[in-house]
Amino acid sequence: MKLYAGDIGAATGFVTDVNAQVLDADNRPIRGLYACGNDMNSVMGGVYPAPGITIGPGITFAFVAARHAAGAAIQARRQSAAA
Ligand SMILES: Cc1cc2nc3c(=O)[nH]c(=O)nc-3n(C[C@H](O)[C@H](O)[C@H](O)COP(=O)(O)OP(=O)(O)OC[C@H]3O[C@@H](n4cnc5c(N)ncnc54)[C@H](O)[C@@H]3O)c2cc1C
């Protein structure tokens, strides 16, 4: 990934799925790796239309990622308890 210096935000970054999980080159989620905010590819597809388009999705996908990670941890604990 190429990096460019900036002083406001970022419109491109790691491509993620609906759970904010980073996708690999084959578009498969990388288990345990999440991205949001400036690290995540913008929901606007690399375009910066107006102020507000960075913080809003940043907060939203941080919440989504935390919820998904917590769910995955609970599921893993249940599976290890059942084994
Ligand atoms: C002047 C200005 C005005 C803006 N106005 C708006 C606006 O009106 N609306 C809007 O939506 N967006 C606005 N933005 C953009 C918005 O603030 C950013 O896009 C957003 O804060 C990015 O969030 P982030 O969590 O990805 O990164 P950041 O908010 O930069 O958070 C990254 C955090 O990681 C910490 N960190 C860095 N390296 C390390 C390390 N090695 N170990 C531990 N911690 C580390 C940093 O200290 C920082 O706290 C503005 C930005 C600027 C500069």
Question: Any descriptors?
Answer:
83 residues, alpha+beta, 1 helix, 2 strands, elongated, binds flavin-adenine dinucleotide
What does this protein structure show overall?
The chain is of the alpha+beta class and 83 residues long. The protein has one domain. The chain is 34% helix and 11% strand. The chain is built from one helix and two strands. Strands 1-2 form a two-stranded antiparallel ribbon. Strand 1 (21-23) and strand 2 (29-34) form a beta hairpin. The chain is elongated. It starts with 20 loop residues before the first strand and ends with a helix. Residues 7-9, 37-39, 51-56, 58 line the site of flavin-adenine dinucleotide.
- Total helices: the number is 1
Number of individual domains: 1
The level of helicity is: 25-40%
The average pLDDT value, as a whole number, equals 90
* Number of extended strands: 2
Tertiary shape? elongated
| Radius of gyration of CA atoms, rounded to a whole number | 15 Å
String of helices and strands: EEH
Distance between the termini: 41 Å
* Strands in their spatial order, largest beta sheet: 1-2
Share in β-strands: 5-15%
- Largest sheet report: 2 strands, antiparallel
Which residue ranges are poorly predicted, with pLDDT under 50 across at least 5 consecutive positions? none
Give the class from helix and strand content and strand pairing. Answer: alpha+beta
Bound ligand species: flavin-adenine dinucleotide
